[in-house]
Amino acid sequence: RTYEIATIPGDGIGVDVTVEACKVLDAAASRHGFALRWTEFDYSCERYSETGAMMPGDGVATLSAFDAILLGAVGFPGVPDHVSLWGLLIPLRRAFSQYVNLRPVRLLPGTTSVLAGREADELEMVIVRENSEGEYSTLGGRHNEGQPGEFALQESVFTRVGVERIIRYAFELARTRSRRVCSATKSNGIIHTMPFWDEIFESVSADYPDVAAEQCHIDALAARMVQQPDRLDVVVASNLFGDILSDLAAAVTGGLGMAPSGNINPERTRPSMFEAVHGSAPDIAGQGIANPVAQILASAMMLEHLGETEAARSVDAAVEKVLTEGRVATPDLGGRATTEQLGSAVADAV
Ligand code: NAI
Ligand code: MG
């Protein structure tokens, strides 16, 4: 069969790594007997500079016809980050009800953790980030500008439906893994939304007596992720906390160049969207040296979501093989290979 995939390479290294992911997936598709039809969209900061919008008015409607979306990254100097994020990524996540942001990390063979001495199996976890509400909200504003009493207000929105479904997702996921869930909270400092989150976590956990449930303040959890990562497996967190924890989790495993992510619509009523955890990295954009592994692993998550599990495994295995051999590595992995060379090595391994 043929899957219809929308690609949005976006900005900076998003463009470089997406080309490589498509190349690897084409190799996997031809080996496993299906096809991927790619349709590329130029939604990006460049488009914003030319037209005043990250995507056209019918962008959501157009994308909704696809089986899945592969996104590079958006954001580039000259366009404020809140414009690029709120002009594309956040509207798509919300329009397509991609309320789970799934961010698995593990220490891949052939790479070393910044946490010296840690074994690979101690460094395997998944951040389940709430992806549709929470702290990322437009409610609030600036007041008394220019006056001594100037202030800014930013409101968070936590709905019972929204919190319950993400926590339930985490418990279901834990049943397929270690049967341990840790919830990120901060109910000592944030006195309305976080106690609400904690209460719902406790009530959902009662439905999963076979899963060990634990709550941890976000600050202590950050320290634990560095000092005792083996004590964590499934970590469920609000939009902001999950965003921060996933960069941290990536950093303690193989770095941002290795961490994939899926914006998942679990009911499969709308397309899900796959991307690396990292951004457009303007500091290395245009040099051809970005690590494409994160985007390749994200595209393997896309195959898995489409039901092509064997093809997804073959992509993961190809990444592991190339990293284990270690001959083709980008600068962040201590090598001298280009993005294109590492992508081609993985495609060949597939
Ligand atoms: P970033 O993730 O783009 O970069 C952080 C650091 O990690 C940089 O030093 C970069 O060179 C390095 N890095 C990231 N990915 C790498 C890779 N594949 N290979 C090698 N090194 C890599 O985060 P930053 O700098 O905070 O944001 C840059 C832009 O990206 C901003 O405009 C931001 O808003 C946007 N952004 C977009 C995201 C998205 O589209 N999902 C997510 C995060 C940031
Ligand atoms: Mg982030």
Task: Describe it.
This protein is an alpha/beta fold. The strands form 2 sheets. Strands 2-1-3-12-11-4-5-10-8-9 form a 10-stranded mixed beta sheet, with helices on both faces. Strands 6-7 form a two-stranded antiparallel sheet. It starts with a strand and ends with a helix. It folds into 2 domains: 190 residues, 3-Layer(aba) Sandwich (Isopropylmalate Dehydrogenase); 142 residues, Isopropylmalate Dehydrogenase (3-Layer(aba) Sandwich), CATH 3.40.718.10. Bound molecules: 1,4-dihydronicotinamide adenine dinucleotide and magnesium ion. The site of magnesium ion has 2 residues, from α8.
Short descriptors:
single chain; 350 residues; alpha/beta; Isopropylmalate Dehydrogenase; ten-stranded mixed sheet; two-stranded antiparallel sheet; 11 helices; 41% helix; binds 1,4-dihydronicotinamide adenine dinucleotide; binds magnesium ion; EC 1.1.1.83; oxidoreductase; D-malate dehydrogenase (decarboxylating) (NAD+) activity; magnesium ion binding; metal-binding
